[in-house]
Design goal:
The chain is of the alpha/beta class. It contains 10 helices and 5 strands; from the N terminus they run E-H-E-H-E-H-E-H-E-H-H-H-H-H-H. Strands 2-1-3-4-5 form a 5-stranded parallel beta sheet, with helices on both faces.
Length: 217
């Protein structure tokens, strides 16, 4: 059973998402909150596995709430809820530790699938976000030292493709490797760079210069 918490300042949105997710046998709604400050308190009490987190909210926004929740516990996975796929706040939310994003107009099936994907430890990053959002906003971010001394050449290749939004299967095809081998490389990359998940690896890759920001699309 995946324990889910819904955070949004609009009651009708919270109720709708809760009803949709609660209709699945493997998903349980354990809490709701109407702003970031309340979300922090509720998360402490109910200890959810996955949090659907709106960005723009009164009192405390979703980014600040995500940062504080994940600073207190590494257990919850946070999915950022946004209206537009070019929302600049999504990038900051990923840097705060969120595991991915979801558009508010996603279908019921996509909503449930997103919760399951993130609960399983994977990042929820569509290629469109990787290209159009991360590349754009990474331009203004500080550049980290090169990763050459930390990662092997093959691991760097995997990180570069991961940052472009490739799935493990696509990376395996591009590098002519077994998918399980790619999974092992990804795991070692996260460990060596002390990263939480694939979402943080994408952000790190752009900030470290492994992948250069491209033109706007």
């Amino acid at each position: 059973m995946i324990r889910v918490m819904v955070v949004d300042d609009q009651e009708i949105v919270r109720a709708g998402f809760s009803a949709l997710l609660g209709s699945h046998d493997d998903l349980e709604i354990v809490g709701q909150a109407g702003d970031g400050a309340e979300a922090i308190e509720v998360a402490r009490d109910v200890r959810p596995d996955v949090i659907l987190m709106d960005v723009r909210m009164p009192v405390l926004d979703g980014i600040a709430a995500t940062r504080q929740i994940l600073a207190e516990s590494s257990e919850p996975k946070v999915i950022v809820l946004t209206t537009f796929d070019l929302d600049e706040y999504v990038y900051d939310a990923l840097r705060a530790g969120a595991s991915g994003f979801l558009l508010k107009h996603a279908s019921p099936g996509e909503l449930a699938a997103a919760v399951r994907v993130v609960a399983a430890g994977d990042a929820l990053l569509a290629p469109s976000i990787t290209r159009r959002l991360v590349e754009d906003f990474a331009k203004a971010r500080p550049v980290l030292p090169p990763v050459d001394a930390t990662l092997t050449p093959r691991e760097t290749d995997v990180l570069r493709l991961l940052a472009k939004g490739r799935s493990n299967r696509e990376i395996a095809a591009d590098l002519v490797l077994a998918e399980q081998t790619v999974k092992s490389h990804v795991s070692r990359i996260l460990t060596k760079l002390d990263l939480r998940d694939r979402a943080q690896a994408v952000v790190y890759a752009y900030e470290a210069g492994v992948v250069a920001p491209g033109p706007k699309r």
